[in-house]
Amino acid sequence: MHHLTLTPADNAALTPMLSDLARAYKTIEEPGLIRRAPVLARLLPTHVLEFLEEYRLGEPSALCLISGLEIELEQLGPTPPHWRNSQYDSPALPQEIFFLLCGSVLGDVFGWATQQDGRIMHDVLPIEGHEHYEIGSNSLQHLSWHTEDAFHPCRGDYVALMCLKNPDLVETVACDAGDLDWSALDVEALFESEFTQMPDNSHRPENASESTGDPVVDRLRRRSFALIQSWNDDPVKRPVLFGDRTDPYMALDPYHMKTDGWSERSLGAFQALCDQIEAHMQDVRLRPGDCLFVDNFRAVHGRKSFRARYDGSDRWLKRLNITRNLRGSRAWRPAADDRIIY
């Protein structure tokens, strides 16, 4: 893992800068803050910028961890019962800004119209009633390992998690493609467009608000949900691997993949890959102030099950999607500077 621990001197320099920015903006979702983030990122300590740039270009590991960001747990208040409206009056706004700036060093942050009502920064927390649902807000069920948004051609290059609370040290799990023995796998079969990737449950309309209050946004969002449904009804066949054949990138989400109609070779190659991934899975126990960046081309990730208490003390993370090619999703976004994919 590519790892950097912030020092007391780093925190002493960051705290006033982040506090000033938190006073200048009401929420992390303000378009002005999102747009300025790549410029504001230059205020980060030089060694933090260099560390993130090495991760971005050198690909030393699929996992990158910045730890040691100061968080006063008593100031956070209770873990929200739901992600709706949790961005307002956020007690963690300074930390959210740090997370945003780090993410903006790696690329452009973006959101989905079909996830958390089009927010850029998501809350990852247990929601009562979701205990056994295959979605990030579940608890009693494992969140199966996956490529984030594997089904979508505009999926991010990175998915990032910042820990605010994790009192039970619930494990995030991940597998780095660099740990796999590609010579033992049928790579050529996995490069063929023979594998069906289904949309995951987090993009379904039942997990969104009925209306945003904006008729234009609601119309575009209905179109997105209809497209998602069409991909469920008639899945698109795609490769599981892409890029360089000796050191490939991955895109797979076994829980949401239909194997009907796959050839015997495709099934065998896919199962062998999944078996290797299972054998090389590692646990990451995030602690308050940890910011974990997962290369979404080079790793799969998930989460082990836990028992939520729903008393305000539960695990609470923030999540960002980051792309290195915002223009690649231009056909899906209403304007060049719009960060939401419809």
The SSE string, one letter per element, is EHHHEHHEEEEEHEHEEEHEEEEE
Structural class: alpha+beta
How helix-rich are the residues, as a percent range?
25-40%
Tell me the distance between the termini: 34 Å
Binding site for Fe cation: 146, 148
Keywords: Iron, Metal-binding, Oxidoreductase
Domain TauD/TfdA-like: 129-320
Pfam families: TauD
Keyword list:
alpha+beta, 342 residues, 16 strands, 28% helix, eight-stranded mixed β-sheet, four-stranded antiparallel β-sheet, 21% strand, globular, single chain
How would you characterize the overall build of this protein?
The structure is a single chain. This protein has 342 residues and is of the alpha+beta class. The strands form four sheets. Strands 1, 2, 3, 4, 6, 13, 15 and 16 form an eight-stranded mixed β-sheet that branches. Helix 1 packs across helix 5. The longest helix is centred in the middle third of the chain and has 19 residues. The chain is globular and about 60 Å long. The two termini are 34 Å apart. The model has no long low-confidence stretch (mean pLDDT 95).
